[in-house]
Amino acid sequence: MEEKTLSIIKPDGVRKNLIGEVIKRFEENGLIPVAMKMLHLTKKEAEGFYAVHKGKPFYDSLTTFMSSGPIVVMILKGENAIELNRKLMGATNPEEAEEGTIRRQYGDNIEQNIVHGSDAPETAETEIVYFFNSLEVCSRP
Ligand code: CMP
Question: Which residues span the domain enclosing 129?
Fold first, then answer.
């Protein structure tokens, strides 16, 4: 089933000059960017995006980190895009991620793990509209 998912290259990924590397992996594996922008979130904007984690012990540190520098936000389209993106990213904790995945290869720890990806269709929808309006989404074959 063709799906759309939201992907973020986090501030650590941008700082490590991994924008091209991450997008290359997506493109090589059939995840097609249909919308993309670079942003520097405020703390409030990061808190809004991660509102589902409000109250968790890592929420403050996570949102401080996510607002610490520019990020690249993308909508990726493809067959089973949500699951495929999660597979390419690897487990949240880089130490537990499979060999060859983005987080395993480049992540420093469970918070600074290079990329974010939607975890389910409902989340993808909410996350996409958090960052993009309909005019910003291109149609690509
Ligand atoms: P992400 O896929 O962006 O979704 C939520 C983020 O919270 C996650 O990646 C990590 O960056 C962060 N996170 C999740 N669990 C923890 C944790 N136990 N400690 C610190 N950060 C976490």
Answer: 2-136
